[in-house]
Amino acid sequence: xxxxxxxxxxxxxxxxxxxxxxxxxxxxxxxxxxxxxxxxxxxxxxxxxxxxxxxxxxxxxxxxxxxxxxxxxxxxxxxxxxxxxxxxxxxxxxxxxxxxxxxxxxxxxxxxxxxxxxxxxxxxxxxxxxxxxxxxxxxxxxxxxxxxxxxxxxxxxxxxxxxxxxxxxxxxxxxxxxxxxxxxxxxxxxxxxxxxxxxxxxxxxxxxxxxxxxxxxxxxxxxxxxxxx
Length: 229
What we know:
Distance between the termini: 27 Å
CATH class: Alpha Beta
CATH topology: Rossmann fold
Number of helices: 6
CATH architecture: 3-Layer(aba) Sandwich
Helix content: 25-40%
CATH superfamily: Alpha/Beta hydrolase fold, catalytic domain
């Protein structure tokens, strides 16, 4: 089933959205899913994982950050906006989703940069019950000492980190140490042999669909354990 396209008006322009409607028994959580720095909201990974989550009962709203909207409009490559602008747009989309679903539960989800922005929103008291982070970029590639964890103590929501063992942006040992200061309950799901894009080498003998199923199942299991209804 294809996702429904739409737009959300912001204080400064508008952003495109994609809505994957839950199939089967609908879960109580709606996921607001943010893309990575170079991975657009309709990329193969974003589309596939959103669809996999929808088949497991989640409504999923994807959206574009303003800089990516500008790339699409002007057919030029612009760098990601700075964190304050990313946060502002994300907060506005979150407010729109709250109006759309009423009192329902919202979980902030994100891939890489989108995961990082989601944690900043949570640390600032965003109206969200939890977080799902695919490939959280704990540090820049090749710079393991520059850890992006200063705001972790302010995050009180239950959070799922989904990380590949070959991710150059997240050393597993450093993540475990960083989570000792995490404000809420953090769960880490490790994907064996996966890199930052959750690609696995041929020697792993796993298909892309099998890896995507593992990711979606990890989210479903975490949601069930974190929010027993």
